[in-house]
Amino acid sequence: MGWIGDTVDSIKPIQIRQLLTQAVSLGMIVTSALIIWKALMCITGSESPVVVVLSGSMEPGFKRGDILFLHMSKDPIRAGEIVVFNVDGREIPIVHRVIKVHERQDTGEVDVLTKGDNNYGDDRLLYAQGQQWLHRHHIMGRAVGFLPYVGWVTIIMTEKPIIKYILIGALGLLVITSKD
């Protein structure tokens, strides 16, 4: 009886130690991802250095599911550039092309008008009520590169939340059950 009891008692601290090691490993993975994201924010000057194209408004140039890499510099925004912008009252940023730039003589600031390549009219109907132009604070960044179709993972997880929960559960289970 003493032999079996000794084995059971010695397994418990080992299992607890393994569980703590796995929890620390998961925490380090999450922390590393956050550090990389914050570093990208600092390097690119954009609050969101990577975005996913969610609609077909920019086809054929960018398709739904493409990932765009953004950069925000102090250089003036010019017609023809692809920008990602926020509209007051909307959560999801929009990816469209600058079609017109209006420089205000009194302040030197630039007002911007955008349009999706696949849309008929400009974006004034998308802007906040009464707003005719975008201002610098609306612009999150300029597109400087893209990866086609990689963003479909994000779109699928957003449109089908059950898949997101299954994936997170599977990853958590994988971390917990890994033997190092």
Automatic annotation (TrEMBL):
Its EC number is 3.4.21.89. It is found in: Endoplasmic reticulum membrane. It is a single-pass type II membrane protein. It comes from the Eukaryota. GO terms for cellular component: signal peptidase complex. Gene3D superfamilies: Umud Fragment, subunit A. It catalyses: Cleavage of hydrophobic, N-terminal signal or leader sequences from secreted and periplasmic proteins. Catalytic component of the signal peptidase complex (SPC) which catalyzes the cleavage of N-terminal signal sequences from nascent proteins as they are translocated into the lumen of the endoplasmic reticulum. Specifically cleaves N-terminal signal peptides that contain a hydrophobic alpha-helix (h-region) shorter than 18-20 amino acids. This is Signal peptidase complex catalytic subunit SEC11. The lineage of its organism: Eukaryota, Viridiplantae, Streptophyta, Embryophyta, Tracheophyta.
